[in-house]
Amino acid sequence: MTDIKVILLDGSKIELSKGATLFDAACKISPRLGKEAIAGIVNGAKKDLDYVLEDDDHIEILTFSSSDGKEIYHHSTSHIMAQAVKELFPEAKLAIGPAIKDGFYYDFDIERSFTPEDMVIIEQKMKEIIERDLPFKKIEVNKEEAKKIFKDKEEKYKLELLEDIQDEKVTLYQQGDFMDLCRGPHVPSTGKIKAFKLLSVAGAYWRGNEKNKMLQRIYGISFDKKSELENYLRLVEEAKRRDHRKLGRDLELFSMHDEGVGFPFFHPKGMVLRNILENYWREEHQKSGYTEVKTPIILNKSLWMKSGHWDHYKENMYFTKIDEEDYAIKPMNCPGGILIYKCSLHSYRELPLRMAELGLVHRHELSGVLHGLFRVRCFTQDDAHIFMTPDQIGEEIKGVIDLTDRLYKTFGFSYHVELSTKPENAMGSDEIWEKATKSLEEALIEKEIKYIVNEGEGAFYGPKIDFHLKDCIGRSWQCGTIQLDFIMPEKFDLFYINKTGDKERPVMLHRTILGSIERFIGILIENYAGAFPVWLSPVQVKLLPIADRHIDYGKNIMKELKKHSIRAELDEINEKIGAKVRKAELEKVPYMLIFGDKETEEDLVSVRKRGEGDLGKIKLTRFIEDILKEIKEKTL
RNA sequence: GCCGAUGUAGCUCAGCUGGCAGAGCAGCUGAUUUGUAAUCAGCAGGUCAUCCGUUCGAAUCGGAUCAUCGGCUCCA
Prior knowledge:
By secondary structure, this protein is α+β, with helices and mostly antiparallel strands. The chain has four domains: 3-63, Beta-grasp domain (Ubiquitin-like (UB roll)); 68-238, Threonyl-trna Synthetase, Chain A, domain 2 (Threonyl-tRNA Synthetase, Chain A, domain 2, 2-Layer Sandwich); 250-528, BirA Bifunctional Protein, domain 2; 541-633, Rossmann fold, CATH 3.40.50. The strands form eight sheets. The protein has an eight-stranded mixed β-sheet with strand order 16-20-21-28-25-24-22-23. Strand 12 and strand 13 (214-223) form a beta hairpin. The longest helix is centred in the N-terminal third of the chain and has 22 residues, at 67-88. It is globular. The structure holds one RNA strand.
């Protein structure tokens, strides 16, 4: 018997007897890998573990720890779920069941709608199937044979899928009595799945097209260890605990009302937070050479025709009439900013002109997508429009990148960058787009920032760089965006006077950093779980007298704190100190000052820090110094 | 917008097969004067989302509307 050699990922080779499978290779590398192996990659193609290797094959063994491995694992779990559903509800028709970023789903066409109780039964059945430890068998057949099989099974969606497959040969996977059209690969047997959970059921259109039939989609997730599933479920719980919609109400920051769906109401404490945020934003923009403007919310239709919004953005806009004339409520700030630019003649010496605007825009979002402060119908963009000469593009983009970096770091966020290119409904020529896209790319390369490219995801007037920031539990949020625009200056006939006294066309750059103030506040709430750093806290200090006779002392402290613009509240409620402390902790106030007979005699306060406890007695003046330092430095 | 679930006091929730609307927390009043995450007692609080219907009788059953939540991008 001759041996074969296969080449591993690191270039090393191992010897195997002829006829050896991927699984044999995994075992040979290490018994542990053999145990953990899910599937493998042979010469770049994903294969099942029972794939027979040949001499000089390049192989890689996949385990759950790789994203490819996870995907296969999730996909196999979706097949098990489909089998369970078919066993319980034979009338259900199978659509598709892929792995997704965070788990898997399977779409079914079935008359009844799945209930939470059904989920429990399906999970039960899945456990049974896993216990049966059925092998996943790969079957290769001709397309015609496959058609016959699924015709007999009356699986019309599978037949439809078959129609779209070009290859003559297709693969089927079978475990037990369950057979599915599938490219594979799969885990060797159902017993491989160690921990799973069905998460939710939702409607979804066949092939994502609303003209097609609505199917029922069941979502789930699986892991190769019970503890990892528990971790995942804990993270879901943690996200729920941080939900800004609940915290926003509990901490009296904002509210939502039926009378204005998608239009958030900011309460006094929410406004404190908002004003701090906006003031900080203004300071940083002034430092970076921006001026600030404010443009009207309602503007004449003619402006929106000219800007292209009428043609490209109408579905998302609100309209009104004034004196029989059509007006639109602005969905973006740029046309207003352009009118300001056009008010005067500009010299090349003025450029770049950086015009910032905290602009309130309204957009008609579908009712089903509204979500707290994250997805609303009116929001304040921290917008800016930079008018510049073409040779200033690079520097300006880099300037915006720097400012963005500074702002995000202040809140403790890390981030990643994505570049979006020309979309289908774009205005302007390919050359202009190419030039604009290249400028953005060059700035990123020069700044040594890694980025992902999203083809066709740009705005209709230009390509863009998006900043996605990452919160403390690992979720990412799209906030900042830089969009280069050669088209608006053209449409509005913008110009500046160059050195030689001739008119020249400026380039425009649209950008936001926080994105939407409302949304950013939502992100801050979730990131800090409502426990804001001192500089952002609506109430920074809570004054807690031990007994009623110490209230006057508290009022004096209050006066002192006010002198330094420290935001404090005095708790005058007739309660034991434990209850007052509890209340302040639940309100997530960063500092509590507690004072009774001992403190009043010596001008002291007992300091308690949120989440940490008693820090001991110090002079009030000392406390003020310390907290002012913390506020000034924006300590996290 | 579409599919599904949900909607009872400010909040969290109970209320069975139709028969007088309930609790805890929060609020108010009083007692207590408290030493680092809940003192005790009393009071008040409701168009059971809205409308229409079935019924002797509807929070409960049916329909419509509104809102909220989850999903509708991931393609064998």
